[in-house]
Specification:
- The structure is a single chain.
- With 42 residues, the chain is α+β, with helices and mostly antiparallel strands.
- The chain has one helix at residues 2-24; strands at residues 28-32, 35-39.
- The chain is flat, with a radius of gyration of 12 Å.
- The relative contact order is 0.14.
Length: 42
């Protein structure tokens, strides 16, 4: 139960931050060379 709750919460936060970043156009979440990170350019 606890693990699923943490995973769900993290997913929602990640989705929220991604949508907010796309709206402002300042940060983009991308996967490069197998690593996920934030980038200023899309």
């Amino acid at each position: 139960m606890g693990y699923k709750f943490i995973t769900l919460t993290f997913s929602l936060l990640l989705l929220t931050y991604t949508l907010a970043a796309q709206e402002t156009g300042t940060l983009y979440l991308k996967k490069v060379n197998g690593k996920i990170g934030w980038f200023e350019s899309g």
